[in-house]
């Protein structure tokens, strides 16, 4: 338990060093894998630690800045530690969308803003278990946000029909939301 606390504190301290809302260069850090930490990002986007929700939004935001996805899973990374965490679905939720000229700007549950385009695409797959659309938007590196149902409905409402598909445009790109029913 003390090791987990030390790891948790180290991650929090490293994340605090990111100036403003900037992101630390976790993609450049290659620390040794130190083990796992009992953090789970649930499918609904709630971050849990040792079975309890992390209630401080600022702490969740801090952890999100040092989150990285590697081939072996999701990790919180500092220059000297790499701690594996569990993620049930995707690490972030796109909880709002707005238009900025011709672009769609998504806001995530941890405060990131993403302008959909070539580098940050919108992808809609079908959930094999439910047959429902499973939309997501790229946030950074290999991290994605699940687009919330209400935000997806906003996209559908704003979509146009092209070749029997609902599409939205952003960043000079065309993104399919699915076939017209």
Care to describe what's here?
It is a single chain. Helix 1 (2-16) crosses helix 2. The chain has 181 residues and is an alpha+beta fold. Helices cover 19% and strands 45% of the residues. The chain folds into two domains: 2-87, duf1285 like domain (duf1285 like fold), CATH 3.10.540; 92-179, duf1285 protein (duf1285 protein fold), CATH 2.30.270. The N and C termini lie far apart (53 Å). The protein has three helices and 15 strands. Strand 11 and strand 12 (143-147) form a beta hairpin. Strands 3-2-1-6-5-4 form a six-stranded mixed sheet. Strands 9-8-7-12-11-10 form a six-stranded mixed sheet. Strands 13-14-15 form a three-stranded antiparallel sheet, with helices on one face.
Indicate the topology.
Layout: H1 2-16, E1 33-41, E2 47-49, E3 52-53, H2 57-65, E4 67-70, E5 73-77, E6 82-87, E7 92-100, E8 103-108, E9 113-115, E10 122-126, E11 133-140, E12 143-147, H3 149-158, E13 160-162, E14 165-170, E15 173-179
Parallel strand pairs: 1-6, 7-12
Antiparallel strand pairs: 1-2, 2-3, 4-5, 5-6, 7-8, 8-9, 10-11, 11-12, 13-14, 14-15
Summary of the model, kept short:
The protein is an alpha+beta fold and 181 residues long. The protein contains three helices and 15 strands.
Number of domains: 2
Beta strand count: 15
Helix content: 10-25%
Number of helices: 3
Named CATH topology of the largest domain: duf1285 protein fold
CATH level-two architecture of the largest domain:
Roll
Mean pLDDT: 89
Strand order of the largest sheet: 3-2-1-6-5-4
Distance between the termini: 53 Å
Based on Cα principal axes, name the global outline. elongated
Any idea of the CATH class of the largest domain? Mainly Beta
User: Which structural class do the helices and strands define?
Assistant: alpha+beta
Query: Beta fraction of the residues?
Result: 35-45%
Run of helices and strands: HEEEHEEEEEEEEEHEEE
Biggest sheet descriptor: 6 strands, mixed
Low-confidence stretches: 1-5
Radius of gyration: 18 Å
CATH superfamily of the largest domain, called what? duf1285 protein
């Amino acid at each position: 338990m003390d090791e987990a606390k030390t790891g948790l504190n180290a991650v929090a301290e490293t994340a605090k060093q990111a100036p403003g809302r900037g992101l630390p260069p976790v993609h450049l850090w290659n620390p040794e894998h130190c083990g796992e930490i009992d953090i789970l990002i649930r499918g609904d986007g709630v971050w849990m630690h040792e079975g309890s929700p992390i209630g401080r939004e600022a702490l969740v935001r801090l952890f999100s800045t040092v989150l990285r996805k590697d081939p072996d899973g999701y990790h919180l990374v500092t220059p000297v530690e790499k701690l594996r965490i569990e993620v049930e679905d995707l690490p972030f939720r796109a909880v709002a969308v707005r238009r900025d000229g011709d672009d769609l700007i998504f806001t995530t549950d941890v405060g990131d803003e993403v302008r959909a385009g070539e580098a940050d695409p919108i992808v809609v797959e079908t959930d094999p278990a439910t047959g429902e659309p499973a939309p997501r938007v790229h946030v950074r590196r290999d991290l994605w946000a699940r687009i919330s149902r209400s935000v997806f409905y906003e996209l559908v409402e704003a979509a146009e029909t092209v070749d029997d598909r609902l599409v939205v445009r952003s960043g000079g790109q065309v993104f399919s939301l699915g076939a017209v029913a």
